[in-house]
Design brief:
- The chain is of the alpha+beta class.
- 46% of the residues lie in helices and 20% in strands.
- It has one domain.
- It has helices at residues 5-23, 70-82, 86-95, 128-141, 146-162, 198-236; strands at residues 31-35, 48-51, 56-63, 96-104, 107-114, 172-178, 182-188.
- Strand 2 (48-51) and strand 3 (56-63) form a beta hairpin.
Length: 242
């Protein structure tokens, strides 16, 4: 039996994390990795959105035996929206991917192709393993300039609009790792904030978390002092007897 999409997605994200960890040196870049499957962002965007200073990847996962026409309809709408725009077509084939998997003799067979081309049997493809490794390398070693990053943001918005705009919202997470502090998760109230420059996300959200932690520690200290004073009064206060 072929594995469901969520099984493949989970293992892809784990493998991507392993690759990034192995290639990273002392400093690990913050990365936004969000599973949008079955969230309000699934229909307008896709299953997974990965973004940091080196990559942006919007990925749709499907099993080979999935015969739904929904994805082909989305692809056709996107193709029409990009018609005549060679710049956005190039961006699409760089950051927007379709991953199809199936089982064959206990091995996972995968076909990874730009989303625009998944209906083309002659399109150049790669495998899930090679795609994961190349994405990990880009996430660690590549640097996206401001002009390219702006084009990526424009493309993601165009994808959403071609699929009926962004209806609803879904929270997201920024993940950061350092040897001193380990793994840190920071909540984003709206996954659309992932379209921001990762530096702005880090500064805005991590600063908010620092302030919140400081306030929380202060309140805990006040509560602890109040509790200690109450206990002290209980021990030393006058006792009454009949």
């Amino acid at each position: 039996m072929d594995p469901y999409e969520n099984i493949v997605i989970g293992n892809f994200l784990y493998s991507l994390g392993l690759t990034v960890g192995q290639l990273s040196g002392k400093d690990v870049r913050p990365m936004c990795i969000n599973l949008l499957q079955q969230s309000p962002m699934d229909r307008p965007l896709g299953d997974v959105l990965v973004e940091n200073a080196g990559i942006t990847r919007l990925i749709e996962f499907k099993r080979e035996q999935n015969e739904s026409v929904k994805e082909e309809t989305k692809r056709l709408k996107l193709s029409r929206a990009l018609q005549g725009d060679s710049r956005m077509q190039s961006v699409s084939r760089e950051i927007h991917w379709y991953i199809e998997t199936s089982e064959s003799v206990a091995n996972l067979v995968s076909r990874v192709v730009p989303y625009l081309d998944f209906a083309d049997d002659d399109a150049t493809t790669t495998t899930l393993e090679r795609f994961t490794e190349s994405s990990g390398r880009d996430a660690v070693m590549r640097a996206i300039d401001d002009e390219t990053h702006a084009a990526y943001k424009q493309y993601l918005k165009l994808v959403a609009y071609s699929h009926g705009e962004l209806q609803g919202a879904s929270g997201g997470l920024v993940v950061s790792y350092s040897k001193d502090e380990g793994i840190r998760y920071v909540l984003l109230s709206d996954v659309r904030d992932l379209l921001f420059d990762h530096r702005l996300v880090r500064e805005a959200y991590f600063e908010r978390v620092r302030r919140y932690a400081k306030e929380l520690n202060h309140n805990r200290a006040l509560k602890h002092r109040g509790l200690s004073k109450t206990l002290e009064l209980g021990r030393d206060g006058p006792s009454l007897s009949l």
